Amino acid sequence: MRTTINPLAELKSDTAEMITKSIKEWAEKEVMPYRHEIDDNFEMAERAMKKLFVDIGMQKLLVPESAGGAGLSFEELPPILYHSFSEIGKADAGIGFVLSALVASSASAIGSEVFDFMVDKLSSGFCRVSIVPPQFGNDDFRGFELAKAVEKGNKIRIKFYGRPLNSGFDADLFVVFCNYDGVSLAVLDGEEVERGEIVKTAGLNASRNCDVRIKAEVEKSRIIKGDAWKRLEIYLNLCLSSLCVGSAVDSCRIVGDWAEKRFIRGKPLKDNTVDAEVLGEVAKEAIEASMAAQFLAKSMLEDRSDDEIHTLSAITALKCSGAAFNVADRAMELMASQGYAREGLLEKQWRDAKSIAALLNQQHSLLELSERFFASKLWER
Amino acid sequence: MRTTINPLAELKSDTAEMITKSIKEWAEKEVMPYRHEIDDNFEMAERAMKKLFVDIGMQKLLVPESAGGAGLSFEELPPILYHSFSEIGKADAGIGFVLSALVASSASAIGSEVFDFMVDKLSSGFCRVSIVPPQFGNDDFRGFELAKAVEKGNKIRIKFYGRPLNSGFDADLFVVFCNYDGVSLAVLDGEEVERGEIVKTAGLNASRNCDVRIKAEVEKSRIIKGDAWKRLEIYLNLCLSSLCVGSAVDSCRIVGDWAEKRFIRGKPLKDNTVDAEVLGEVAKEAIEASMAAQFLAKSMLEDRSDDEIHTLSAITALKCSGAAFNVADRAMELMASQGYAREGLLEKQWRDAKSIAALLNQQHSLLELSERFFASKLWER
Amino acid sequence: MEFARIREFESPLERYLAEMIKDWGEKYVLPYRREFDEDWKEHRYVEPALEKLMVGYGFQMGVFPGEFGGWGIGNSDYFGSITARLMEEIGRYDTGIAVSVGVTFWPLFMITVKPHINYDLCAEFSELFARKKLTIAANAMTEPQGGSDIENLDELRGKTIRTTAVLDGDEWVINGHKLWPTNTGGMADLFGVVCTTKPGEADEKYFAYIYIPANLPGVKQGEPYRKAGMAADKNSDIWFDNVRVPKHYRAWGEGLDAKYFREIIATGCLGSAAMTLGAMENIYEILYEKCGELRYRGKPLKENTAVAAVLADIAAEIEVSRAAVYTYARMLDRPDIYGERYSAEMVARGRALKLKVCDACCDVARKAVDLLSHYGIDRSFDVEKHWRDVKMVQLWMGGRQLCQMDVARHFYDCKQL
Amino acid sequence: MEFARIREFESPLERYLAEMIKDWGEKYVLPYRREFDEDWKEHRYVEPALEKLMVGYGFQMGVFPGEFGGWGIGNSDYFGSITARLMEEIGRYDTGIAVSVGVTFWPLFMITVKPHINYDLCAEFSELFARKKLTIAANAMTEPQGGSDIENLDELRGKTIRTTAVLDGDEWVINGHKLWPTNTGGMADLFGVVCTTKPGEADEKYFAYIYIPANLPGVKQGEPYRKAGMAADKNSDIWFDNVRVPKHYRAWGEGLDAKYFREIIATGCLGSAAMTLGAMENIYEILYEKCGELRYRGKPLKENTAVAAVLADIAAEIEVSRAAVYTYARMLDRPDIYGERYSAEMVARGRALKLKVCDACCDVARKAVDLLSHYGIDRSFDVEKHWRDVKMVQLWMGGRQLCQMDVARHFYDCKQL
C-alpha cells in the first residue's frame, strides 16, 4: 500500500473498475514510454488523447447508447470520474485537464436543447471542448468579466475577447459563460471562434491555449440557462480534484522509489528521519486529498442542494490542487536535482499541479466562499 | 448555513440527533454562561463535566443496558461520536478532551476481560479515565518510552514514571500502554497510581494533568492484548477530530459575528475583500476538517483493515487539530485585540486547539506515516 | 550564540544598557516569570520587576536629553539601534514588560527625539519621570468604534477620530473614550492622546497629539482586561470627561502632530519586531537546553535529524529576522541617508518589518510548542508563554491587515486601499 | 523602490558594476529572455548574452587581483558585498546566467580571495580568462553515489568522495565521475575538482581541490540535462579518465584545501541567496506593473485589498531578505569582526541565510503565480519562469535538508546528525 486508500464503499463500481483498467493499460502503452518527451512533442500527447477520448471512449461517457456512447447516468458518473481521473492523473495531468472540460461541459448540457448538438460532436471523432469562464476584467460576474450576450431577433449575439480556461487553440466546441438571463452557458462551434497564437505556459502542455475573439450569433437553443454553469463547475471540480489526487499519488510513488534507492549517511534516504518526515508529510497530503475528493464524489450521490455541492466542490478542488503541488514540491526538495531534471518525471507533475492550482484562482474562490458562508457583500450587481 | 455542511447520509441517526440535542442544551445551560471564567475555575468545568458524563450519560455510551448504560454497538458509535464531539467542541474542547479518553478506552476494552472492571467504574458515578501513552524517552515503542510490564507469578508488575496524555491528576482509571506481549494496555485503578502536582498548561484546563509514578501489580485480566491499543487510538482520533471540527466551527461563528458588527472603511469587515479572504480561508479549513472527520467516521462503518483505519485516523486527527488551530489563529488576526481578550471567547478555542495539536505529536506521527506508506525503517526493535 | 547583525553600529551606550538588562532579567524576572500569568490584575510580581528596571536601573529617564538628567537616547545618533536593543533584550525575558517600557518611551518620542525636541515639555515631564518612583506613560490611540482606523493615517487622515480637543482660552478641553492602550488599567501617569480638533474632517491639521497627566480630574482608567497572555502588559479603557490641560501640552501643533506621529508608527514597528526577536531568542535558548535533555529514539531530541530540521528552521528564521531588525534600526539612525523617520517610505518599511518578524515569531513559537509536544504546552517550560504572548504583538498597532495595506500602498503605489 | 540594506557599505566599485549589469540586462537579456527555455541545449541566445557580460563588459576578469589585470574583487575590502550585488543584479534578469557567472568565479575564489591568494595560479589562470573570448569555470563536486555527501564536509570529512587524485611524480592523476555542476555540458574551460587522495578516509588532509583545464586529454563533458527551468545554466556529467595536471594545480594542499573549501560553501550560500533576491525583485517589478494593468472588480488588481494583502506579503518578504543578504555579505567582508569566512560559524550562517531566502523566494514566486492565475502560468509574463528557475537554487548545494543539518549542527551544537 503506497499512499492510496480503499475508496468509500459507494464509490466502488464494476464499470469504474473496468474503465480504470483500460486507462491503466492506456497509460502504460501510450503515455509512460513517452513521458520524458511528451511535453515537448504535442503530437505524442495528441495521439494519447485520441486513444483515451475516442478508443477508450472517455469523451462519450455521457453520450446516449443510441449514439454510440456509454450513456452513463448522473448516479453512475461521480465514482467513475473519481477513479478514472485519479488514474489519468498518475500518467499525465495535462491530458486529464483537457478531458475534464469535455466531461464537465457534457454534464452541464444534459437535459438541455443543446445536448444533441454536443452529442453530434462528441460522437463523431476526436473532440476537444474549451471552457471560457469569467475572468479578470470587470464587474459583471462577481468581479470577473463575462462574455456579453445580447438578444438580436431570434438569435443571441455573443461577444468576448480573452483567454479560455483550456484548449482554446484546439477546441471543437466552446462553452462560454455569458450574461444571458443571469449567468448562462453558450455552446459554440469551434468555427465560430477566432483564435490567436498558442500561449506558452508553465505546464499542462496537452492543453494548448490561446486568446480568442468571439463574435458569434447563435440560436437560442445553444444557450443553457439556469444552474447549468454551477453543474459545469461541480463536475469540473470533481474531475480536477481526482486528477490531482492521481498526480499526488504519482509524485509519492516517484519520491518513494528515489528514497529507497538513494543512500545518504549509509542508509536509504527513507530511513533517515529528516527525509522520512518529508515522506510522511507527502503521504499525509495525498491521503487528505483523496479523502476530500472521495467525499465530494460521494456527496454528489446524495440528496444535497446544488449550492452545497458547488461549494464543496470548490473547496475540494482548491484542497486537491494545493495538495498535488505541495506533494511534488516537497518531493522535489528530497530528490534535489534529480527531481528537477526532466528525466525524473516529478518536475512535470510539479508544473502541471501548480498550473491547475493557479487556474483555480484561489483568491477569487476564497472570496466566493466568504460570500457563501458569511454573506459577505463583495460585489455590487 | 455557516461553515457547516450536511453530514454524509450514513452518519445521520436518530440516536445521534437525540444526543446532540441534549448536548446543545447542556452547552447552553452549563457552559456558555460561564465560558469566560471556566478556565479559571475548575469547579465550573467539573460541574459541567458531571452533567455531561453522568446525567446525559456520555460516560456510559458503551456500558451495557443491563448496567444502566446506552449499550451502543460499534456500528452505532462512529456517527454518534462524530456528532456529539463536534457539538462539545463548540462549547469547551477541554471537556471533550477529557471525555475522549474515556470513550476511546472503553471502546478498546470491549470484549476483553477488563471491560467489566471498567463498567463498574463507568456506571458508579462521575468517572475520568487517563491515557498513558508512550512518550519521549527511549526506543521501546517506535522511539517512545513505554511502561515496563514484567510478569511476576500470576501477576503483572507495571512500572512507569512520566506524564499521561490527560486528566492524570483526577482520573479514576488509567489506561497504560505497556510492553507486555508486544504492546498492550494495562487498566489501573486510580488508587494504584501515585500523582504529582498539577501541571499548568496552555489550554484544555478541564483536563488537569500531572506526572505520575506507577508501580503496580495487577491481575493478568487487567491487560488488554493484541490490537486494542490501535482501537484506542482510532477512537481517540475520531473523538478529537470531531471535537476540533466543532472548535473550528465555533471559531468561524465568533469571527463571523465580529466581521458583521465591526466596521472599517465604512463597511462591515466582512465586506472588505482583505478580511473576506480570511473569512473564506477559515470557512475552507473548517469544512475540510469536517469532511475529513466524516470520512473517518464513515470508514469505520465499512469493511476495512484496522491498520488502514488506524492510519486514516492519525491523518484525520492531525488535519483537524491543525485546522482548528489555524481557524482560531487567523480569526484572531481579523479580530485583533478583541480575539485575544478573554471575553472574546476565541482565545480559549485558540489555546485549546493548539494544545490538542501539540499533544498529537506531529513529528512522530509523520514518521509513523512514513513507516506505513514508505516502509521506512526508522526504529530498531 | 549571537544571531546576525552588523556589529559596527553597536554603540557603547547600547552595550552597557544591554548588560544592565541582562543583569536585571536574570535577577528580577526569571525567578518570577511563571507567576506573571495569574498576576495579570494585581501585578504583585510584575510591578516590582518593572520598577526595578525603571527606577532602580534608571531606565525611566532614558529618552530625555542629558540636560534634563536623561540618558539622551532620543538625541543620540544611535536612537534606532538602542531602541531595538532595549526591546530585544527585555523581550527575551518578557515581551509584556518590554512593551510596558517601550510604551512609556513611546509618547515621549514625540518631544524627545532629535530633530524635534520640545524643550519646554521635556523640562516639565522629565520632572515627573525623575521621581524615584515607577512612572509610566501610555499612548492612547484606539477607539471603540473603529479598530485600526486611527493608525490608518494615510487613508483616513484622522477623519474617524472621536476624541475631541477644544481650545478654551489657554486650555484644551478633551473628551473621549479610548480602548486597549498598553500601560493603562491604572498604571499610567501620563497619556499621549490622539484626538481631533474638528471631528469628521479628513485633514491632518486637525489631528492633535496632546499630553494628559493621569491624575487630572475627568480622567478615568478602567479595570485591566484579561487576555490570552501578555499578562505583564495591562490594557484597559480610558475615559476623558472634560479634562483640561494647558495649551502647550499639544506636542507640536497643526500638521506637525500628524507628521511626527508617523514616527511613532515607525518606532512602534521597530519595537514590536525587536521584542518578538527577543522572544524568539529566548525560545531558541530554551530549545537548545531542552532538546538536549529530552530523549527520543535513544538520543537527545536534537540529535534526531527530523527534529534538527525544525530546530534549524527556527534558528535560520531568527538569523534573518535579526539582520532585518538591525538594518531597519540603522536606517532610522540615519535620516540623512535613508530619509526622515516619519516619511511614508520609512513608515512602510517599518510596517513590512513588523509584518514579517511578528509572523516569523508566531511561527517559531508554534513550531517550538509542537516540537516539545507535552512539554510545549507545559507552562513550566516557558515556550507556551512566549507563544501566547507574542501573538498579541502581531495583533496590535492595527493588526496584520493594516500592516499589509500600509506596505502595499507604499511599495505598489496603491491609491484606493 | 530600493529594498532595505545598509547603504553605507556600498562601495564605488559595487555601484559601478551594478550600473553596468543594468545596462547589459536591459540590452542583452530582456529582449531574448523568453527564448531561453527552448534554448537550453544550444544556448544560441544565452551564450551571446553571457559573452557580452563576461567579455564585452569584462566581468570575466573580475575576481583576479589588479596586478593580473583583474578588478580585484577577491582582495577588495568589499568582497562579500560586491559578490552579493553582482548576483542580485544579474539574478533580476536571469538566475541561470547569475549562476553561470557566479560559478565561474567560484572555483577561483580558492586562489583569488585574500588572505589566501595563490599568486602562481592567479598568474597562470588569469591568462586564460584574459582572452577576449568567453571563458568559463565550473566547480565539480557532486558525484553519482551520494547526493549531498560531499558538501556535507563537517559530518563526512570527505569520506565518501570517489574521485581520486594520485600523485605521480610532478603530476596529479585524476579519475572520477561528477554530476550536475553548473557550466558543464561543454561550457567549462576550467574545472575546480573536489577529490580525495585517499578514498574512504574521513580525514580532511586527504581532501583535495585540484584545477583541471577542460581541454586536457581524458576530460569528457556529457550532454546538458533538460530541466524544469534554469535553461541558462547547463548541467551535465563530467568524466575524468587518467587526467594529468601539474602538481601545483592543487589549490593549497593538505588540510588547507578543505579549510578554504568551506569558504566556497559560505560564498555559494551568499550567491544563492543574492540571486534569488534578485529574482524576487524582478517578480516584484512585474507585479507592480501587471497588477496595475489587470482589472478586477472595476479596479486595478492591486487596488483590491485582498490582492494588496498578498502583494504586501511579497514586498515585506523581499525587504527582510535583502537586509539579511547584505548583513551576511558585510559579515563576510570583515573577518576581523565576524570571524573567518571558512569558520564553522560563518558557514552555518550562510546555510541559514540560503535556507530562508531561497524558501522565501520559492514562496514569493508561488504566490505571484497564484495571484496572476491565467497570466501567472503564461510564459510571456515571466513570473512562471522565475518560479521554475528559483526552485533549482533551493535544491542545489545539498538541498534543504543538508542546509538544515548544517544549521542545526552549529546553532544547537549537535554531534550526531
Describe this structure in words.
- The complex is a heterotetramer, with two copies of chain A (381 residues) and two copies of chain C (417 residues).
- Helix content of chain A is 51%, strand content 16%.
- Chain A contains eleven helices and twelve strands.
- In chain A, strands 1-6-7-10 form a four-stranded mixed beta sheet, with helices on one face. A four-stranded antiparallel beta sheet of chain A has the order 4-5-9-8, with no helix packed on it.
- In chain A, β4 and β5 form a beta hairpin.
- In chain A, α3 packs antiparallel against α4 and α3 crosses α6.
- In chain C, α7 packs antiparallel against α11.
- Chain C starts with 11 loop residues before the first helix and ends in a 6-residue tail after the last helix.
- Chain C contains twelve helices and ten strands.
- Chain C folds into three domains: 125 residues, Butyryl-Coa Dehydrogenase, subunit A, domain 1, CATH 1.10.540.10; 112 residues, Butyryl-CoA Dehydrogenase, subunit A, domain 2, CATH 2.40.110; 156 residues, Butyryl-CoA Dehydrogenase, subunit A, domain 3, CATH 1.20.140.
- At the A-B interface, α6, α7, α8 and α11 of A face α6, α7, α8 and α11 of B.
